[in-house]
Specification:
alpha+beta; Immunoglobulin-like; 2 domains; 6-stranded antiparallel sheet; 4-stranded antiparallel sheet; 2 helices; about 25% helix; about 45% strand; transmembrane helix; membrane
Length: about 325
């Protein structure tokens, strides 16, 4: 009887132990799920707080920008201004381009005079006296250099007693208003060595987009094969012709501008198949040249390799940079 009681007691203890273990496991599992749920809720809360913070910061920045803009307008001495690059009057010999500027003062007085200034990064000042036009506006044409070193455009009003000056605009990349963007690449080029002669085949794709003013476009182009700096062969690039004899407002020009001025690229594809004899250390180059209607030439070396005595290419020697002349 005692043995049976001990056995029952032991069995009961085991059952109780397993029950306790199961309860503990269930409790731990439940707590773990609760912790994960709390972590997820905390993460979502943090994300919502972050989004709210970003939204508030954006609103504050927007409000600050509006306030700053309003204060700037209120304190400004001009009610309107503009500038335009007269790309069709570029003077390449002098290396200058006319900048046509306009400013209208908020307060007009008799005998008011205006002067315009363009400052370069080197501190050089290019200036012109303004002439009064319609609506109390003042106009001037300033000759500025053909580079991107210009920094800011300013105007000064002088009524004989008080002189006030204001920076109208920071100037960046002025050349985008009178130069095209041009870039060429070689597609599917194949080179075969045959009895100390290299046979080149493939195609050149030339991309271009007009300047911001829409007043320039390609008029001619060619692909040059050179050996050690000497011209071996040139292939014309079939550019899209544009008859501009009737002025910028003709339909052909407008369609051309609509197609290419808004950052969209035109593409010219020119196939080639050339054979060039070589010797040790010969430098073989492929150069693309595009000429625009403003007289600028865009030159880009898109291939340059030195050849060993076996016709193997062993040294790339070109920059791929577009040089504008």
């Amino acid at each position: 009887m005692n043995e049976e009681n001990r056995w029952n007691k032991t069995k009961l203890q085991k059952i109780l132990f397993f029950v306790i273990v199961i309860v503990c496991l269930v409790t731990i599992f439940s707590m773990n799920r609760s912790i994960k749920s709390m972590q997820q809720e905390l993460s979502m809360l943090r994300q919502e707080v972050g989004n709210l913070h970003s939204s508030v910061s954006s609103d504050i920045n927007h409000i600050s920008a509006n306030i700053e803009s309003s204060l700037k307008k209120e304190s400004s001495i001009v009610s309107d201004y503009s500038y335009q690059v007269l790309a069709d009057k570029i003077n390449k010999a002098e290396g200058t381009v006319p900048l046509r500027v306009m400013a209208r003062p908020k307060e007009h007085k008799n005998n008011l005079k205006a002067s315009f200034f363009v400052e370069s990064e080197e501190g050089k000042i290019f200036s012109a006296q303004g002439e009064e036009g319609e609506g109390y506006s003042f106009w001037a044409t300033i000759e500025v250099p053909l580079n991107n070193n210009l920094k800011k455009l300013s105007v000064s009003f002088d009524d004989g007693t008080v002189q006030k000056t204001e920076i109208l605009e920071e100037i960046y990349e002025l050349s985008n208003r009178y130069m095209m963007k041009v870039d060429s690449t070689i597609q599917n080029m194949n080179i075969m060595n045959n009895n100390h002669k290299l046979e080149y085949s493939g195609a050149v794709e030339t991309y271009f987009s007009m300047n911001m003013e829409g007043n320039n476009y390609p008029v001619s182009g060619e692909i040059r094969f050179q050996k050690d700096g000497t011209l071996i062969k040139k292939i014309p690039v079939n550019v899209e012709k544009l008859d501009d004899s009737t002025g910028r407002n003709n339909e052909s020009h407008d369609l051309y501008i609509e197609k290419y001025v808004a950052g969209e690229s035109g593409v010219y594809t020119t196939s080639f198949n050339e054979t060039i004899a070589y010797k040790k250390d010969s430098l073989i180059e492929i150069v693309v040249i595009i000429n625009d209607n403003l007289g600028f030439q865009y030159k880009q070396t898109i291939y340059g390799e030195r050849i060993d005595e076996n016709g193997e290419l062993y040294l790339s020697d070109y920059s791929n940079e577009v040089i504008i002349e």
